[in-house]
């Protein structure tokens, strides 16, 4: 069997863009791509076998993607997949991901994100697969003690949401795994705030229900799906009182995962490595609104409402380790992020249901 990369949650936003990047890169041509997704955050048309993002990726690349509609907590389902493919490494995206929702539904988040990850690790160990790229989050840092955030910043302190706690707990499990067996090679990529869409405009962020993240909320207002943007708080100690975040183009983020996989091939190392993926620059909510209005030519009406549970005032990354270890840095600008988001939303006003 040909070697394969297993991508959990590969039909979701960051997962699908990473699958696209893997297939676009000729130096990954020897790998089959196997995607596992329970479609919590992905759309599939009635009667179709594959979710719409993967269908479009296959059309654009002319390559096949093996897809399995299972939950990563399905132990027997994972065993069938590992026994059917020659999986060499895993990119693990599958998780519930909304900070605010996690405060309301902590048990669901711990079940999906922690129990599911442990079940995946058991299957990997059973089939001798020890290389993992993990989709982590800057929320593991909690309330920043200093900015910019580097990987030496303490994690697990003052965490403000079950989502952030679930990512932190999973990282601690990975560290214990690596201490227990030197065969494990784990790169935990701590994302800041993914935005944007593929340059083709054919795949992008398509949240189910009301968006939990800023950029799809803005773009849905711009295209007329939503009446106005809700800005959660304007009394933070920031440049204009609104929350400041480090936004990174999803294609830059996807390329970071490809660099991590190349590191497995080029370098003999073991153990757990955490790496920030961001731009190193923070933008406020109002600055993001202004940039999107410029890119789209649309006025974005908004309303200031109360702060959202679990949110912090500001965070942005120190990304020097990513450059040193992975040879990676973000190259796309805020204008690129807004332009590509608008191109996706304008062409797909109802998302993948368009």
What report would you give on this structure?
The chain is an alpha/beta fold. The protein has one domain (3-353): NAD(P)-binding Rossmann-like Domain (Rossmann fold). Helix content is 39%, strand content 18%. It is built from eleven helices and 14 strands. Strands 3-2-1-4-5-6-11 form a seven-stranded parallel β-sheet, with helices on both faces. α1 (13-24) links the parallel β1 and β2 (32-36). The model has no long low-confidence stretch (mean pLDDT 95). Homodimer.
Topology:
Layout: E1 3-8, H1 13-24, E2 32-36, H2 52-61, E3 65-68, H3 75-84, E4 86-92, H4 99-104, H5 106-126, E5 131-137, H6 162-180, E6 185-191, E7 193-195, H7 214-222, E8 229-232, E9 244-245, E10 247-249, H8 250-266, E11 271-277, E12 283-284, H9 285-296, E13 302-305, E14 314-315, H10 320-326, H11 334-347
Parallel strand pairs: 1-2, 1-4, 2-3, 4-5, 5-6, 6-11, 7-10, 8-13, 9-14
Antiparallel strand pairs: 9-12
Helix pairs in contact: 1-2, 1-8, 3-5, 5-6, 7-9, 7-11, 9-11
């Amino acid at each position: 069997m040909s070697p394969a990369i297993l991508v959990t949650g590969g039909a979701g936003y960051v997962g699908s863009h990473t699958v696209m990047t893997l297939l676009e890169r000729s130096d990954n041509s020897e790998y089959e791509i196997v995607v596992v997704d329970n479609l919590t955050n992905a759309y599939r048309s009635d009667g179709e076998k594959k979710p719409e993002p993967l269908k479009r990726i296959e059309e654009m690349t002319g390559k096949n993607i093996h897809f399995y509609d299972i939950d990563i907590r399905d132990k027997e389902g994972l065993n069938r997949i590992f026994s059917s493919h020659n999986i060499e490494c895993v990119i693990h995206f599958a998780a519930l991901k909304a900070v605010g929702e996690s405060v309301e539904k902590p048990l669901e988040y711990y079940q999906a994100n922690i129990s599911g990850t442990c079940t995946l690790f058991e299957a990997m160990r059973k089939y001798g697969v020890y290389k993992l790229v993990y989709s982590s989050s800057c929320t593991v840092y909690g309330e920043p003690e200093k900015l910019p955030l580097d990987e030496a910043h303490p994690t697990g302190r003052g965490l403000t949401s079950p989502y952030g706690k679930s990512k932190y707990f999973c990282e601690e499990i990975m560290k214990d795994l690596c201490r227990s067996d030197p065969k494990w090679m784990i790169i935990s990529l701590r994302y800041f705030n993914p935005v944007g869409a593929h340059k083709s405009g054919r795949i992008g962020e398509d949240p189910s229900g009301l968006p939990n993240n800023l950029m799809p909320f803005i773009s849905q207002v711009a295209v007329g799906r939503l009446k106005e943007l809700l800005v959660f708080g304007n009394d933070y100690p920031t440049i204009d009182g609104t929350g400041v975040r480090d936004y990174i183009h999803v294609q830059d983020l996807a390329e970071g995962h490809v660099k991590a996989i190349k590191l497995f091939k080029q370098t003999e190392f073991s153990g757990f490595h955490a790496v920030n993926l961001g731009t190193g620059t923070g933008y406020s909510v109002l600055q993001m609104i202004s940039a999107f209005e410029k890119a789209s030519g649309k006025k974005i009406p908004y309303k200031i409402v109360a702060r959202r549970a679990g949110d912090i005032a500001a965070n942005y990354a120190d990304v020097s380790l990513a450059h040193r270890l992975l040879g990676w840095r973000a190259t796309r600008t805020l204008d690129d992020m807004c332009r590509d988001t608008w191109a996706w939303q304008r062409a797909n006003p109802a998302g993948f249901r368009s």
